[in-house]
């Protein structure tokens, strides 16, 4: 079913690419019955923005995994923007249905993607449209698939030693497994805060590589094979009738700008030690809700 969905997406993408678009026109889009105008094809049904909850999990065969990375990615086709919001996993929040507070990543451990989604929405006022989950092995494979030549990133001395890399500090080209170590590294003065910045940095770089790869005719022709291979590494709750217009929209309105935000924002939290949870971030929820709404351009 997943492969069929991806083939449908690709066919629709090619069809849409062959259509003549005029951004100022109001008439129905040629060749696609039932559309009221070009905006339906250009932007899909998520013209105002579609928000994904991206969940990176530390899956090593256990019955319950913890979410190692939690990000909300908002794709805004009209603005050609992607807005990435990193939600720090140690944020001390209320878990819906439990009457208790815990670290944010504990929600995934207790109730999977649905409870994590509910927790994010309840605490941060951020409406999530879809979820996408990838584990460590999937990240390595997907990174090598999207950027087979690797990504050039700044590697510190501490990082090179921790990652057991045979390389000097400075700009280095990292591949899949090295990229995973890079985004997970936390053994310096910045700890999880530095890790969040590196997660955002790598996601933005992979987005750019993906855009470059499929910006040519040769790249578009290579698209189905890449998508079919990448699909096995990602679990999502998006259906075919939702994926097709969004895929068309992204191809026609590839994001030119990636903006990032870290939650909690500066000066809105305290480091605390809680008996039942250990080291946590006690955050000012209202201040962070406002920061999110301002960042994505929505009024509360």
UniProtKB/TrEMBL annotation:
Major localization class: membrane
Cellular compartment(s): Cell membrane
GO cellular component labels: plasma membrane
Signal sequence, start to end: 1-21
Entry keyword annotation includes Cell membrane: yes
Entry-linked InterPro entries: LytR/CpsA/Psr_CW_biosynth (IPR050922), LytR_CpsA_psr (IPR004474)
Biological process (GO), any one: cell wall organization
Membrane-topology annotation of the record: Single-pass type II membrane protein
Keyword match Protein transport: no
All residue ranges annotated as the Cell envelope-related transcriptional attenuator domain in the record: 66-210
Keywords tagged on the record: Cell membrane, Membrane, Signal, Signal-anchor, Transcription, Transcription regulation, Transmembrane, Transmembrane helix
Classification via PROSITE patterns: PROKAR_LIPOPROTEIN (PS51257)
Function in brief: Involved in SarA attenuation. Affects resistance to oxacillin and teicoplanin, as well as the synthesis of virulence factors.
Entry similarity comment: Belongs to the LytR/CpsA/Psr (LCP) family.
Protein name per the record: Regulatory protein MsrR
Organism for this UniProt entry: Bacillus infantis
